[in-house]
Amino acid sequence: MFGRIERWFGNGWLGIAELLITAFCVFFSISIHEFCHGFAAYKLGDSTAKYMGRLNLSPLSHIDPIGAICLFFFGFGWAKPVPVNPNNFAYGKQKSGMVWTSLAGPLGNLFVAFLAVFFLHVSYVISPVILDFSEAIYSVIVNILYTLIFMNVGLAVFNFIPVPPLDGSKILNAVLPPRLYFKIMQYEQYGFIILLLIINLPIFSSILNGISNLIISAFFWIVELIPFLKI
After folding, report:
1. Which of 23, 62, 185, 230 is the most exposed place for a label (fewest CB within 10 A)?
2. Could you tell me which of 70, 38, 80 has the C-alpha nearest to residue 166?
3. Are 160 and 168 in contact (CB under 8 A)?
4. Strand, helix or coil at 176?
């Protein structure tokens, strides 16, 4: 964390530019994540997020201060959960509706990361044209795309952890017996404390980074198969 602060404020305008890029990517990634939750619930019949003004891409609607700070400094974080009322889903579809709603956020982030990988390869292909126009603009574009890739994959992977209030805890509802699930959810109030503790465990960061790197490598491999993106 302190290394990032030193890099942002110790490298003059380059550090400030990196700080602004990181801030933009944090706000954008969190907004995409929560919008996808709200949109999925809306399509499944629940308008709660829409009525509460959460069905939008405004960061002000979705930012959780602690989660945003963690995403800012560690690359893993969370947003303010979108309100969902599963009783508004079709009869008998409450559990599956919650699963799809919970999956929508991380899947939205993975889709953004994949698009960023795609456009990164496009930027490599057309780099001579961009570099002739402006080396600074090309550097900003590449930095934004790289930051979006790592941040969105990190946000998606982190939110699959089955600790409240993360999405993984909601997905558990569909695979665990109700009695066991509600027993686990009794500790929901301690979720943030647990998250803050495990974020600071080196082995935890190593595991999440390993999973994230595998996903990113897979995205690069897929995009490299596209004929017109051969470098």
Report:
1. 230
2. 80
3. yes
4. coil
* pLDDT, tens only, 80-127: 888 888 888 887 788 888 899 999 999 999 999 999 999 999 888 877
pLDDT (tens digit per residue) in 33-60: 999 999 999 999 999 988 988 899 888 8
- Joined together, the tokens standing for residue 34 give 């929560």
Residue 91's identity, in one-letter code, is Y
Please give the positions annotated as active site: 34
Kindly tell me the sign of the dihedral angle through the C-alpha atoms of 220, 221, 223, 226. positive
Report the distance separating Cα 156 and Cα 173, nearest Å. 19
Structure tokens at 168: 């993984």
Whose tokens are 């600790």? That residue is 163
Pairwise CA distance, residues 19 & 227, whole Å: 35
Show the tokens assigned to 156.
């998606």
